[in-house]
Amino acid sequence: MTSELVIAIDGGNSKTDVLLVDAAGNVLGEARGPGASPQNVGVAACVETLERLVLTALAGAGLSGDRPFGVHTSAYLAGLDLPLEEEILHDALAARGWSPSLAVGNDTFALLRAGTSGGTGVAVVCGAGINCVGVGPDGRVHRFPALGRISGDWGGGAHLGEEALWWAVRAEDGRGPWTALLPAVTAHFGVDSVVEVVHRLHFGRLPAHALNDLCPVLFDVAAGGDEIAQGVVDRLVEEVSVLAAVSLRRLDLTGGTPQVILGGGVLTGVAEPVIAEIERRCRKVAPHAEFRVVDVAPVVGAALLGLDAIGADVPAKERLRLLSGGVTPETRHDTDS
């Protein structure tokens, strides 16, 4: 076992990142592979993918593949939306014997840690799906089921893409008002008629995740003044704001300067006015909240949670952030002053 080695994992729907970090915050190895959400691929396939990536990272770092690999594993994955799902994956990973200690959770917790100085505050992620978690200074946690429409969710890249296509189809066949989404969607897919996109999706000639790529199209059309597209964007802004506001209230974080972290492919790709409007609405609940669009990979958050777990010092966490090319919230307030 490598002394004080932390195995950090961020598993999204589209990709999985692994970092090997020592107690001083040095990155010793890394690997990237396909999405490994147990919700999508199943627990067994998820564990196999994760172990393959961990072994790849160890080999690339010139480290032994003998078990245990390190002292702690910090694994945060999409699709772990309920405590039971976390428990199931925890047991499956514990059986592999990677490390004496192991923490497993939803990837939104890694986003929160990546963007905050100590892991407390509220994080909203909008990537393929949408989710929000909050952690109070007293350790209380607030989260949502995040199971899609059946659990009250609205938003995420897949949903926004479907909305853009829905409005484009109705503009083309006369059931809805004209919208610039129609020519924008047909141009994006290189077709003469938007119904051709529908046929391709229906017959499997176009993967469902291709709709995620319509998000930038939607935001561009909205920025051009299209009322239909802007209505969809406004609904997303409201949803993100409501998620954050509810968590802030439930954790009694409406006073002081709570940190609100925004991340995921959709929110990191929008124009500044969209983020500014989310901030404006959230500040009705928490007037002095501090907002950040996360600027480091969520796997860094998983690694920071791992360093927290082994009791690493603040300089180690600063070093990890610097090596990963991100801002260092651990010292940000001192620097700002």
From TrEMBL:
<dbReference type="InterPro" id="IPR052519">
    <property type="entry name" value="Euk-type_GlcNAc_Kinase"/>
</dbReference>
<feature type="domain" description="ATPase BadF/BadG/BcrA/BcrD type">
    <location>
        <begin position="9"/>
        <end position="306"/>
    </location>
</feature>
<dbReference type="Pfam" id="PF01869">
    <property type="entry name" value="BcrAD_BadFG"/>
</dbReference>
<dbReference type="InterPro" id="IPR002731">
    <property type="entry name" value="ATPase_BadF"/>
</dbReference>
<protein>
    <submittedName>
        <fullName>N-acetylglucosamine kinase-like BadF-type ATPase</fullName>
    </submittedName>
</protein>
<dbReference type="InterPro" id="IPR043129">
    <property type="entry name" value="ATPase_NBD"/>
</dbReference>
